[in-house]
Amino acid sequence: MPLTCTKARRGRSPLMKEFDVLCIGNAIVDIITRCDDAFLAENAIIKGAMNLIGAERAELLYSRMGPAIEASGGSAGNTAAGVASFGGRSAYFGKVCDDQLGAIYRHDIRAQGVHFETRPLEKAPPTARSMIFVTPEGERSMNTYLGACVELGPEDVEEEVVAGARITYFEGYLWDPPRAKEAIRQAAAIAHRNGRQMSMTLSDPFCVGRYRGEFLDLMRSGTVDIVFANSDEVKSLYETEDFEEACNRLAADCRLGIVTRSELGSVVLNGAERVAVEAVTVNEVIDTTGAGDLYAAGFLYGLSTGRPLDLCGKLGSLAAALCIQQMGPRPQLSLAEAARQTGLI
After folding, report:
1. 278-311, pLDDT tens digit by residue?
2. CA dist 331 to 85, 231, 233, 297, 326, Å?
3. Strand 165-171 relative to strand 140-145, pairing
4. Looking at the predicted structure, is the pLDDT value of residue 68 above 80?
5. How confident is the model at residue 2 (pLDDT cuts 50, 70, 90)?
6. β-sheet bridge partners, residue 266
7. CA gap 40, 255 in Å, rounded
8. Residue 199 in contact with residue 11, Cβ under 8 Å?
């Protein structure tokens, strides 16, 4: 039987806020520009990865960027915005500073329809920013200064929001700032105490390499129920080049695993069940920034609203396809309307 979202326990307070998906992540303002491979080489930028950088490096790269788009971002923030665009009730925890970029972030994510009430810092460090360089084929290379993100901690976990969210989803990148780990474990305890589910994304192969043992423990201990990964991340997690082996091991380690494969689509792993989902054909790839985040948004929206696993995957594929045909990771068109036009909802 397909895994579906656990129903809330009875006897809840009538004042408790109910959400389909709560996302927890690094609240980052994305600064996106185009460049060529020579620019990446000249500036020692690792192509296709998320590179953590300090304040001086951030200032240097910013000074060398061409015309750019600035918008609220961060992996889990993108997912929260995507859920809202599908018509879902989404919430977000993430730390910004009470500065100009922090104000931009708060306005942008709330304008997307996301509940966001995390208290901002009143002093340094400043709001995080990520310089994203997009090469002609659409590949993105991220250079991220975490800034205020490292201050996210247990005090920022709003218990009623976690208890009222059908699924809480967090990004693997949160394992870089140490206090965020405490916040995630606290949120997991609240979620499971209220009959809810915890989900995570592995984020990128370098992140997996840093925290492989801890990620596996989160899955095997039952702290995390649902895991999102791409093919490179899941192979890195199990240190194998055999995709099928990696998928089999993921299926054994978590209740539900979802692995994206770019133009090859995705596969949903529910115990012994395998659900193959085709990718949506696109005419031109503009920017792959946020494709995985928007896939997760579609899937989580479907799962939290009781849809079957194959349809959850199709909603994810649709959102990812629309994302890579635009600059930037946030939905520029209504995902709900796109899903209606294609007969998915």
Report:
1. 999 999 999 888 899 999 999 999 999 999 999 9
2. 7, 24, 25, 11, 9
3. unpaired
4. yes
5. very low
6. 260, 277
7. 39
8. no
Name every residue whose Cβ is closer than 8 Å to that of residue 338 and which is 6 or more positions away in sequence.
318, 322
Pairwise CA distance, residues 86 & 305, whole Å: 11
**Who contacts 70 (Cβ-Cβ below 8 Å, separation ≥6)?**
29, 30, 31, 32, 104
